[in-house]
């Protein structure tokens, strides 16, 4: 379970909620320019662009959940069980594992338009990172300030969909979510008139009744509709504080509270963290389940040009400002 959104005021913002029943030793990690990645295909590349996001670091290898590069290109991987299909290595194709996809895209490309031709040769393979870390079934949301796309590795090959909503959750595949949105085209943030029947008198007894029928459960399809409604109807000032505040308010509409969603192995699924990156300025903001205060990490020139990763521990303890 996860939800990802793309949001634009004066600047462009990209981020997600991470909904899990465990932590994966996630930290805020900056990968610098010219950082070497050795691929499972046997090839090697060095990053052209620096990027920042949430990752677990194994040795010197950052395994990213989501990230944004210095040019404003962003990508997040979200769980896609039973639908994600990874292939064997294929000759004359760009063979990448799911965990190699994020650094390869962000390290080499500056926009979705620049990336498009490479996607035609992309093959996502089923090679695990090591004996302890298996491949995770994922699909991906990729965004820049102009366009959002969804990339889904299916049995018949890579499917790339234009995402007009700026939203991605989990199953079913993206075309289902597009069709499902038509079931809610009558929802509105406005006051409503009686359309039930002209034969009887009906009046709204409170605000917000135009959105009766907006799903409130934590299923992927319901979260997709709910966050899309709040995102696409959002009214926000264009300054940084307003934009960041609004972004997190939108993500909070799909926040998973401990005790409301249980996994198959009887563990509580929760929103372990939420993040938002100002992709225009290169600032990564986050908050955690226990800590509501927003913390920020900047993609600085110093970080971009280091020889090694810059790693920042998450601030997980609640920050409270006492006034007396």
Protein described:
This protein is of the alpha+beta class. It is built from six helices and 18 strands. It has helices at residues 98-108, 112-119, 174-180, 220-232, 240-252, 301-304; strands spanning 2-8, 12-20, 27-31, 36-38, 44-46, 51-58, 61-69, 74-79, 94-96, 122-124, 138-143, 148-154, 157-162, 167-168, 270-278, 283-288, 295-298, 310-312. Strands 13-12-11-8-7-6-3-18 form an eight-stranded antiparallel β-sheet, covered by helices on one side. Strands 14-1-2-15-16-17 form a six-stranded antiparallel β-sheet, with helices on one face. A two-stranded antiparallel ribbon has the order 4-5. A hairpin with a 4-residue loop joins strand 7 and strand 8. The longest helix has 13 residues, at 220-232. 38% of the residues are buried. The model has no long low-confidence stretch (mean pLDDT 96).
Task: Give structural attributes.
eight-stranded antiparallel sheet; 324 residues; six-stranded antiparallel sheet; 6 helices; alpha+beta
The parts where pLDDT drops under 50 for at least 5 residues are: none
Strand content: 25-35%
Seen as an oligomer or otherwise, the chain set is single chain
> Within the largest sheet, what's the order of strands?
13-12-11-8-7-6-3-18
Percentage of residues assigned to helices: 10-25%
Tell me the number of helical segments per DSSP (H or I, 4 or more residues long). Answer: 6
Global Rg: 20 Å
Beta strands, count = 18
Biggest sheet architecture: 8 strands, antiparallel
What is the rounded distance between the termini?
Answer: 40 Å
Structural class of the secondary structure composition? alpha+beta
Output the helix-strand order.
EEEEEEEEEHHEEEEEHHHEEEHE
- What global shape is seen? globular
Average pLDDT rating = 96
